[in-house]
Amino acid sequence: MTEMTALLSSIYRHGIWIGFLAFVVSVYLLAHCISGVIRTERRARLFSVPLVESQEVELAEAGPVVLAMEGPILSRRFARLEYELVGPDGAPVSMRSVLFRARTTGFTKATMTLKELEIATPGRHLFRIHGLDGSRPGDAECSMVFMRPHLATTMSYVLGIVFSSMLAISSLVLFLLRIAEGRTG
Fold first, then answer.
1. Alpha-carbon span 66 to 36, nearest angstrom
2. DSSP element (H, E) containing 113
3. 3-state class of 185 per DSSP?
4. How far apart are CA 115 and CA 75, in angstroms?
5. What is the tens place of the pLDDT at every residue in 16-26?
6. Residue of 79, 69, 64, 72 whose CA lies nearest to 48
7. CA-based end-to-end distance of the chain
8. Coil, helix or strand for 148?
9. CA–CA separation, 99 and 105 (whole Å)
10. Distance of alpha carbon 29 from alpha carbon 162, whole angstroms
11. What is the reported pTM?
């Protein structure tokens, strides 16, 4: 118990320097994690297509692809739509709903994942959207986005943001407490 008390006492005695260094490191980590989320989102994006009933899309690689919607923040345009992707061989592409709908929101647009696809054959695919019932005002602002899976990487950066923010706040508090004590004592 005395060893723990000695350790805590030492940390408190050197709190100004420890707090300052921990704050600098945590701010660096916070900036790194925030830029990592943005970088991951940009790298994952393959391409986007307009919101139309039927169109051809080029998928150059086989493997997993995520289908997402992008549109104005409060858009309800994507409700009750069904999606179909037919491969170059005429076979439908395996498609399932995502377990966790990841959302990315900017100042004017939001992106939300909808389906996970398994592309077996690269090439030109036919992409259909059922339930559009004609175009509406604002459809030009909406699009469908094809991207690589990136949820795990994004979540690890989000956890990094949370922990580095907690470290920044606690180190700032330690630093300010030691400064305040130094002025009064």
1. 19
2. strand 109-119
3. coil
4. 18
5. 787 888 899 99
6. 69
7. 27
8. coil
9. 19
10. 10
11. 0.77
What the block records as the tokens of 36 is 């990592």
Looking at residue 102, its pLDDT comes to 79
Tokens of 91: 């076979």
* pLDDT tens, residue by residue, 175-185: 888 788 767 75
Residues in the chain: 185
The dihedral built from the CA positions of residue 124, 130, 136 and 142, taken in this order, carries a sign that is negative
**Tokens at 25, concatenated:** 């490191």
Token pair, residue 175, equals 């630093």
Tens of pLDDT, residue by residue over 80-115, are 789 999 999 999 999 998 887 878 887 888 888 899
Tokens of residue 145, six digits:
């986005």
Distance (Å, whole) CA 92 – CA 182: 71
Half-sphere exposure in the Cβ direction for 39 (13 Å, CA)? 8
